[in-house]
Amino acid sequence: MDKTSHVTEELYKKNLELAERNKTLSLLRKIDEIILSSVTDIDQIAHQIADAAVAGAGFKAVYIMLINKKEKLLIPQAVSLDKSTIEIDSSLIRAIYSLKVNLNDSDNLIIKTINERKLQKTDKMYDLFKSLLTEEACKKIQQSAAMKLFHIYPLVIRSEPIGAIIVCPKEQVEPFFVFQEDLIQRLPNVVSIAIDNALLYQKIDQANTRLKELDKLKDEFVSLASHELRTPLTAIKSYLWMVLNQSKNIDPQIRSYLDIASQETEHLIKLVQNMLTISKIESQRLELTLKNLDLYEMVKLAYDTLKINADEKHIIFTLLPYPEKLIVNGDKEKISEIFENIIGNAIKYTPENGTVSIHFTTEKNKVIIHVADSGPGIAKENMAKLFQKFSRLEEGKQNRTPGTGLGLYISKQIVELHKGSIKVESEAGKGTTFTVHLPLAQTNS
Ligand SMILES: Nc1ncnc2c1ncn2[C@@H]1O[C@H](COP(=O)(O)OP(=O)(O)OP(=O)(O)O)[C@@H](O)[C@H]1O
Ligand SMILES: [Mg+2]
């Protein structure tokens, strides 16, 4: 009989132990959930953890304090008190939040914990608030809340102290207090991780906001500078044109200087225009005026404009019509810009007596415009650079062809705004083929 009651007692104890262990695990899981939740505000995280610890582990009180390096203070972040044993007096809570400890106050036990990075225990609340409260006041609070013991743990992340957590356990409940102790040992680590997470998020969020502001400033600056530059540049171009075309007796040397000045002004105007377009695209201010367009007509326009350049270089320049009408819904000016650049590039980079040919194909609901040249081709390692801003593959070459290195970047952005794409196939020395893929408009015919 004696033996049976002993076994029953053992079983009962084990059962309680298990229940206690279970509590610890579910509290740690709860804190995990808080860390992984969408809440990123440090104040809310600290409060949720303190509340979870008090409710889940049966502590009397949990108090989280964080270091403010700038103010050299240890500041209360969250306080949670067990409502069933402590009468919550809002003036007491307010008083606790106003207790900021100076980091140089080495007499204070919390500061000592942080400095030594070691657990401290005390049965005197006065040790926590020396120099802020009188011993008498501390005793009173302690008595009225029946707080017997305080465990103070440093909160440390990557060897840097970030604050402290103070846990006030309930009176000892033999023999399972050992698990509460186990939990208290693990709590500071999870709390540190949670707080660190929130701090990092806060930093990233602030940096992100700053970057967005800077980006906006940059866009505004580029836009303003481009507008301001355009007017004087256009005036210079017009006067140079007048001098070159209306004065007959210009010294040939001076004429060649003026020619260079005129070309460079042209280059600057193009650069300013491209920068303005890019600033609009990147700040999503580029608006498209969509209309149904006859694609062959559009390409023919670019062909006619560029024919003179091809003829100058004795390039065989061909445009093969497509047997059917190809209608795309697009912005006339912007689409023209794409073809002028891609066909313009083919002529610009193909040496004399080469060939440039354009033809169309269709595939499902899209049209593909092929622009093939017999130029120098593009090496594989340079392909990725092609569509980046200011990418000029001829960098460093002598007699390089003029250009801003922005044409393909802009073309790609515009094509993508039309829900299309640009592809390139090339082999160094064997010419290049650019293909522009655009969705065909839904027409009723
Ligand atoms: N058909 C081509 N054959 C060989 N290289 C090309 C061809 N098209 C483009 N490239 C290379 O890609 C670079 C980028 O072209 P992109 O059109 O963006 O700029 P760009 O022609 O130099 O200047 P712009 O802004 O005046 O168009 C060119 O500088 C050139 O080195
Ligand atoms: Mg170009």
CATH class of the largest domain: Alpha Beta
Q: Structural class of the helices, strands and pairings? A: alpha+beta
Strand fraction: 15-25%
Spatial extent as radius of gyration: 38 Å
Bound molecules: adenosine-5'-triphosphate, magnesium ion
The total strand number stands at 13
Number of helices: 11
Q: Write out the strand line-up for the largest beta sheet, numbering strands in chain order.
A: 3-2-1-6-5-4
* Cα distance spanning the termini: 99 Å
Number of domains: 3
Please state the average pLDDT score.
Answer: 88
User: Helix and strand string, N-terminal first?
Assistant: HHEEHEHEHHEEHHEHEEHEEHEE
Task: List segments where confidence is low: pLDDT < 50 over at least 5 consecutive residues.
Answer: none
Oligomerization state: single chain
GO molecular function: phosphorelay sensor kinase activity
EC number: 2.7.13.3
Keywords: Kinase, Membrane, Phosphoprotein, Transferase, Two-component regulatory system
Protein name: histidine kinase
Give an account of the 3D structure.
It catalyses: ATP + protein L-histidine = ADP + protein N-phospho-L-histidine. Keywords: Kinase, Membrane, Phosphoprotein, Transferase, Two-component regulatory system. This is histidine kinase. With 445 residues, the protein is of the alpha+beta class. Helices cover 52% and strands 19% of the residues. It contains 11 helices and 13 strands. It has helices at 2-36, 42-57, 90-97, 109-116, 126-129, 135-145, 177-246, 252-282, 295-312, 332-349, 407-417; strands spanning 61-68, 73-81, 101-102, 120-122, 150-157, 160-168, 290-294, 316-319, 327-331, 355-363, 366-373, 421-426, 432-439. The strands form 3 sheets. It has a 6-stranded antiparallel sheet with strand order 3-2-1-6-5-4, sandwiched between helices. Strands 8-10-11-13-12 form a 5-stranded mixed sheet. The longest helix is centred in the middle third of the chain and has 70 residues, at 177-246. The mean pLDDT is 88. Bound molecules: adenosine-5'-triphosphate and magnesium ion.
